[in-house]
Amino acid sequence: MSRVVVIGAGLGGLATAARLVAAGHRVTVFESADTTGGKLGVLERDGFTFDTGPSLLTMPAVLEQLFADTGGPADLRLTAVDPACAYVFGDGSELVLPHDSAKVPAAFDEALGPGAGDAWRRLHARSRRLWELVGEPVLRRPVSLTAMVRMSARPADLRAVAPWLTIDKLGRRMLPDPRLRTWLNRYATYSGSDPRRTPAVMAVTSFVEQEFGAWYVPGGLRRIVEAVQARCEELGVEIRTGSPVESVAVSGGRATGVRVDGRDVVADAVVSNVDAADLYERLLPTGAARAMRRRLHHRPRSMAGFVLLLGLAGRRPGPAHRVYFPRDYDAEFDAIFGQNPQPVTDPTIYVHSPDDPALRPDDDSEGWFVLVNAPAHDPGHGFDWDAEGLRDDYTRHILDLLADRGADVRERIRFVETITPGDLQRRTGAPGGAIYGTASHGPRAALRRPANRSPVRGLYLVGGSAHPGGGIPLVLMSAEIVAGLIGSTENAAESSAAPRSATGASRRPRPPST
């Protein structure tokens, strides 16, 4: 049994803790905030409850596997989101996608004209092959140059991965309708990135969403964190909130514990669920992992988000998830990732408004989560989201844009809570409020994301800023990877420490015969 410290009680940290304790380790989780959950946050006001993080769950089997591996199913009901999403394009046309992937081609044909469904089928078939290549071999295992080289050595696999293509170029090759290309390009934003710079392999995200469906947890996705935390507590994980870790102790090139509340806590392994940049730049000694610090310094931050939480009078029927695209999607990415980052004048607007009685004070009301992509908060070298008056001005601007796009809620507003990228940085610890850490730009984006095993021995990374990326399923995969790495390291240590015979075989006690 080893002693493990986890820094951060976000979903990744809690899932890792549950897996480690189930495997026989002793685990303490230190969380700087007064509550657990990290980016899977919640805000309550005047009888309304809002998820302030992810609003959809894909690949529910990954969550179910976590509970199966740590003691059995949790009391966590999932419901299909149907329709999965409604898209309103810049020209006013609308596409409503059903939960059932078998019905998706007909939905494309009906909304965008004959042939759109066939174009989607071709893309989906290509993405299915991509998923076979990267799903299990890449996403659910530590970063592996060997796996990438193996795919590159097989011409058919190399053509499928197409490292020379971006998501945007893939869409231009396969999707004749510009609205279809806009729809596909949005999946680059799932990693906080620009589709014109994001490798085409990331288009597999669209396959995952349509193949495995969109799911919701009644009561809000925050209940996922609550269920994982409950599992941790059942297993004996010690969770200390309001306890910010000041530094990671390193001796002889190995992590030996953490300093928290002015005292040293010794550990055999340390798992960091904080943003990778924060770990390498703030928590580690200056001499440790210097190369990683330089590498992350030169990587572009992912986009952040500007969020409005609206408490509305009255209810209007409609899809729980809606996306309102601008006429010029490229201009959005130019504003966010350009040399002088700025708020997007005409942004894509994402609305989440689940019909969930648990989230509203009465049946004559509804809550809207409204998100627009935004540049990270960077007063010194980029954009300052704390500038006087900006919060209110941009809030009004987004509400006016919603009205222009046919979703005028201004007369129904009971209250507005605004969360800027600066607020996200302060609430979650993500530098600049960059939700996904670094952007997935360039053909080697998968290899350039911080690995789960750090250069400092005994120090591991979990969560959205590390491999394999952000979003609930990928964060849970990162927890599975980290728990496996710690288990394999401990097993290797035990094996090397075991006495050896003259022939080199380990002399371990044999179990009694039966």
CATH fold-level topology of the largest domain = FAD/NAD(P)-binding domain
Q: Please name the fourth-level CATH homologous superfamily of the largest domain.
A: FAD/NAD(P)-binding domain
- Indicate the proportion of strand residues: 15-25%
Q: Count the E strands.
A: 19
Largest sheet: 7 strands, mixed
Structure write-up:
Residues 11-484 form the Amine oxidase domain. The protein is of the alpha/beta class. It has three domains: 3-42 and 60-78 and 218-299 and 439-497, FAD/NAD(P)-binding domain; 119-213, no CATH class; 304-433, no CATH class. It contains 17 helices and 19 strands. It has helices at residues 11-22, 60-69, 104-112, 116-139, 145-153, 155-161, 167-174, 178-185, 204-212, 222-235, 276-283, 290-297, 329-337, 390-404, 421-428, 445-448, 472-497; strands at residues 3-7, 26-30, 42-45, 48-51, 79-80, 85-88, 94-97, 215-216, 238-240, 245-251, 254-260, 263-266, 269-272, 304-313, 321-324, 349-352, 365-374, 413-419, 459-461. The strands form five sheets. A seven-stranded mixed beta sheet has the order 7-6-15-16-17-14-18. Strands 9-2-1-13-19 form a five-stranded parallel beta sheet, covered by helices on one side. The protein has a three-stranded antiparallel beta sheet with strand order 10-11-12, with no helix packed on it. Helix 1 (11-22) links the parallel strand 1 and strand 2. The longest helix is centred in the last third of the chain and has 26 residues, at 472-497. It is globular and about 65 Å long. The model is unreliable at 495-514 (pLDDT under 50).
